[in-house]
Write a structure and sequence with these properties.
This protein has 6 helices and 7 strands. The chain is α+β, with helices and mostly antiparallel strands. The chain has 2 domains: about 130 residues, Beta Barrel (OB fold (Dihydrolipoamide Acetyltransferase, E2P)); about 50 residues, no CATH class.
């Protein structure tokens, strides 16, 4: 046996083993299983705005409800100050009137102790200094609409705050048809005659306005809502 070959054989084996090891490591580095499982976000994905939930309340002032006065009036804390707030488009029974307590309880159960979102229409306050707002719960519930839809209040319109009038009018019509809340009580009249609340735009038809006028005239002996501008007993002639 060649002594030189014998001497260098172990070194050759080690060199071959080293080369095989390097080849094996290179193959493992390129294996598909070692690729990142989640690719880095593209620029478009990184700049995409967060998804807005469909039931999220609209933008507005976030406030805490600190007191519930009745079915359509609450107290809120805004910027460290307490404000009395009246729901736009909603009129619930007054104390000692039928369904007062039911409307009060309904409103209290909805908003008492809640943080709500306030949305302004046109006016800041009413003639009594109360904030005029649409009110939304965190789950998107539109409080003004919920009261009308449950038959716990009637629609009342005071221009220029009319952005939700058609929506609320439709909900009231559905509540009346379903006999919801006060509309299921035979003692409840077609409209509120306690004070001047309505004008012709609050009614869908002349017949509906006429019914309200005659009901209030019979119970109060006067045109409470000043619907009969011509004084002939026929109101809101411009309505269909």
């Amino acid at each position: 046996m060649n002594p030189i070959a014998t001497t260098h054989l172990p070194r050759l084996i080690r060199l071959i083993a080293s080369l095989l090891l390097l080849l094996l490591l290179a193959a493992c580095a390129g294996a598909p299983g070692d690729e990142p499982t989640t690719a880095p976000p593209t620029r478009a994905a990184a700049n995409r705005p967060p998804t807005v939930q469909p039931d999220a309340p609209p933008d507005g002032d976030r406030v805490a409800v600190t007191y519930v006065f009745d079915g359509d009036t609450i107290e809120v804390e805004l910027d460290g100050r307490a404000y009395r707030l009246r729901y736009i488009g909603v009129d619930t029974p007054e104390r000692e009137e039928p369904f007062y307590q039911a409307a009060f309880d309904f409103n209290r159960d909805l908003v008492a102790g809640q943080t709500v979102t306030l949305v302004r229409d046109v006016s800041e306050t009413d003639q009594y200094g109360r904030l005029l707002r649409y009110v939304y719960l965190d789950d998107g519930t539109f409080v003004n609409a919920a009261i009308i839809s449950a038959g716990m209040g009637r629609l009342v319109t005071f221009p220029p705050d009319v952005a939700q009038t058609e929506n609320l009018k439709q909900l009231q019509a559905e509540a009346r048809e379903a006999g919801a809340g006060m509309w299921g009580d035979a003692a409840t009249g077609p409209c509120d005659c306690d004070r001047n609340l309505y004008n012709c735009r609050d009614f869908d038809t002349q017949a509906e306005a006429q019914t309200c006028f005659e009901y209030c005239f019979d119970t109060q002996n006067r045109d409470v809502h000043n619907l009969d501008g011509g004084g002939d007993g026929f109101v809101c002639e411009s309505l269909p």
